[in-house]
Amino acid sequence: MADGRLAGPVRVVGTGLLGTSIALGLRARDIDVTLDDVSPTHVRLAVDLGAGRPASGADAPQLIVVCVPPDVTATVVARELAAFPEALVTDVASVKLAVLDELRASGADVERYIGSHPLAGRERGGPLAARADLFVGRPWVVAAHDAISYRRAGAIDDLILDLGAVLVEMTPEEHDRGVALVSHVPQVVSSLMARRFIEAPSAAVNLAGQGVRDVTRVAASDPDLWVQILGANAAPVREVLLAYRDDLDRFIDALADPEAPGARRRVAEELGGGNVGVARLPGKHGTDKRFTTIVVMVDDRPGQLARLLAEIGEIGVNLEDLRLEHAPGIQVGLAEVQVLPEAAAHLTEELATRGWRIAG
C-alpha cells in the first residue's frame, strides 16, 4: 500500500514532460503508476526513467491523468471515461472550458471528469526533461463544475498535494481568463517582440542584454503547441490583446510629439502603471516582497559561481533569487544576486572585502 494520499493505481496517458513528471513524483511516493502513450518509445523511456510500468488491459485505475496536446485532450478524456467506468479522470491541458464543453457535447460522463492545470513546465519537452519535483510549490488549478461532487473529485486534490503543488480552485471560465492574462498574452507579446529581430542589423542585436532576454525568453516555445492553446482560448486572449492595443495606441500617440502638452505625463503614467502592476506579482514563497539586486562579477572559470554562493552563506545572508548573465566580449559572468533590502549594504561590503568585484 502506498504511503501517500492516493491509493492508486494512477494511469498516466501521455508521457511527455508533464505526464512523466507526474508519474515520477507519484512513484517517489511508492504509488503504482501505469503509463500509456501513442508513442511506444516515449513509454519505454518513461519506464526506464522509473516513472511506472506499461499499461495493461487488467488495470483498474483509481485516477486517470490525461497529458496530451490540447487539440486531442477532449477526445482522449472521453475515450478514457468510456474505457474505465469506475475511474475519475482529469487532464492537464492549459485551457479548461473548451475541453469541458466538447465533452458535454459528445455526451461523455462528466460526473467523473474534472479538469486541472499545473502551472509548471520547462523550456524542453519530452520524458527526458521530466522531473519528480517539477510541481513543488507551483499553483495547480482545479476547474470544478456543477456535475461533479467534491467527494468524488477528492482524488484530484490528493494528487496535487502528493506532488507538492499548491491547490487553487477556480471555475473553467475563471481559469481561462486568468491564463489568458498571465500566460497566453505574454507568449504572444514575447513572440511578436522577438520577431522584430529577424531583419534587425547585427550591430543592434549584439547590444541585447538581460532585459530583452527576459521579455523574449518564452518566444522560444513550440509554435505548434501555442497555435492549439491560443485557438482553444481565443476569446479571452483577444479581449486582453484589444485592451493592450489601446494601451499601445495611447503610448504611440504620446511619442508622436513628446513636446506636446501632457505627452510626457502620459508616458510617465503608463510606465508608472507598469510599476504598480509588477508589484502585484507574487514573489518568493507567494509573497509580494521586493528584493534588492547586487551585481557581482564572476570570472568564467570552474567553481567560481559555487564559491560566490558559498561565501554568501558564510556571510549569513539568505539568497532570495539569482540570475546569471554573461558580459559580451569578456570572460566574465554577471551574477545578479537578490537579497532583502536590509541585507544589501552588509553583503556588498563583505563581498568586496573578500575580493569580489561589485558591478552594481
From TrEMBL:
Which key words tag this protein in UniProt? Answer: Amino-acid biosynthesis, Aromatic amino acid biosynthesis, Oxidoreductase
**Locate the Prephenate/arogenate dehydrogenase domain: which residues?**
8-285
Any GO BP annotation: tyrosine biosynthetic process
The Enzyme Commission number assigned here is 1.3.1.12
Keyword Amino-acid biosynthesis in record? yes
Query: Which PROSITE patterns has this protein been placed in?
Result: PDH_ADH
Pathway recorded for this protein: Amino-acid biosynthesis
InterPro entries, alphabetically? Answer: 6-PGluconate_DH-like_C_sf, ACT-like_dom_sf, NAD(P)-bd_dom_sf, PDH_C, PDH_N, Preph/Arog_dehydrog, Prephen_DH
Q: Which GO terms describe its molecular function?
A: NAD+ binding; prephenate dehydrogenase (NAD+) activity; prephenate dehydrogenase (NADP+) activity
Family per record: Belongs to the prephenate/arogenate dehydrogenase family.
Protein's UniProt name = Prephenate dehydrogenase
Q: What's the source species for this entry?
A: Orlajensenia flava
